[in-house]
Amino acid sequence: MIIRHAEWSPYVDPARRIATRGESAREPRRGLVLRLENDDGDLAWGEATPFPAITGDGLDDVETSLERWAATWLPVRLPSEAVSDPTALLETLDAWNLRSMAARSAIETALLDMLSRRQKLAAHQWLRTPDDAAGPVELQLSGLLFPDEPAAMERQAKDLLDRGFTSLKVKMGLADRFESDRMRLEAVRRILGADRGLRIDVNGQWQLIEARALLARLAAYDPEFVEEPVAGKNLLEVGDSPVAIAADESLLDDDLRKKIFQAGTCSVAVLKPTWLGGPLAAWRIARKARALGIEPAFSHAFEGPIATAAAMEVALSMAPLRWPCGLWSFETWPAWKIAPLPQISHGRIVSADRPGLGVPHFEPPK
Fold it and tell me: What sign has the CA pseudo-torsion 280, 309, 173, 191?
């Protein structure tokens, strides 16, 4: 197969609701929609929606990376083994050496869609190996709650539970806000009851010296896990914790990721494919984590529907998963003209029984 042409166009989601570091705001979400075409005229789409505050690559970096890739490599014949083997395809992608992870993610997404549709397989089926568990594929979802007053978060929680979600996620702020954040946790845990999951995300904002005591206090809320209570190398020094700890942003650094996986302080790896280089890159990291006894948990970074569908397909390829996937939120992408993703059903991710990513016809916001 020859990838003979690529083109991309920008999109702007004008008022996407974002939650990070215990705060919530509406802001423009900017990205690119990529279209690849092969020598048979087959088309496939990818999406690059960078998160500069975390990953450092902005939209200009994405476009520059795509321009260099297209000028250097296209048209390009994929090795025959890469057409049917994800590991071989990853070797090709690594050789292209794209600097922007969001740009690489767009290319990976489009190739995953194109190659799995070529074999008339859903993307998650194309990714599964002979050693993977067989049988029906279905995953639970964890819904993100946007930081707000406790009463408003209770309403969000009730809405998501009514839609079939079995786990909810709450973001926390700096340590000096712990008491006000604790009121939010109490409100959400009250709605959840004892039989549904609660996860907590600190986004690496606590200092190591205060994190140990605060983690002990969080044990009262019986969280599934706490994401990034401290940042970077401090994750290696947390020591014994009364609650499970998950690595997230710190996994973007290749060397640090290897140390975190070997240290044993984190039992969960939260994987956002766009940040890691795409669905195939996340698939590779998930398999390495699981081989070391660290359970992957897939999550979004407020992308559009194409990247979200790709993340869901990767998650399905790793089923069964211990933890619900953080691939949905109270608000999604109202500015896009698109039917509901076929992978979503009553608060669960299911096999869409459609080839490729299964993304319905769409029109991105201009």
Answer: negative
Q: What is the pTM for the complete model shown? A: 0.95
Catalytic residue among 120, 158, 169, 171: 171
Query: 360 is written with which tokens?
Result: 């319905």
Q: For the segment 284-339, what is each residue's pLDDT rounded down to a tens digit? A: 999 999 999 999 999 999 999 999 999 999 999 999 999 999 997 545 677 899 88
Which among 3, 53, 4 is positioned nearest to 30, based on CA atoms? 53
Q: Where does 126-363 sit in CATH, by number?
A: 3.20.20.120
- Active-site choice (120, 158, 258, 272): 272
In the residue annotation, 169 being an active-site residue is answered as: no
Q: Catalytic residue at 258?
A: no
Q: Please report which residue ranges of the chain form alpha helices under DSSP H.
A: 52-55, 59-73, 86-96, 101-118, 123-127, 150-162, 178-192, 208-218, 254-263, 273-276, 279-291, 305-317
Q: List, for residues 251-278, the tens digit of each pLDDT value.
A: 999 999 999 999 989 999 999 999 999 9
pLDDT of residue 365: 87
2-121 folds as Enolase-like; domain 1 (3.30.390)
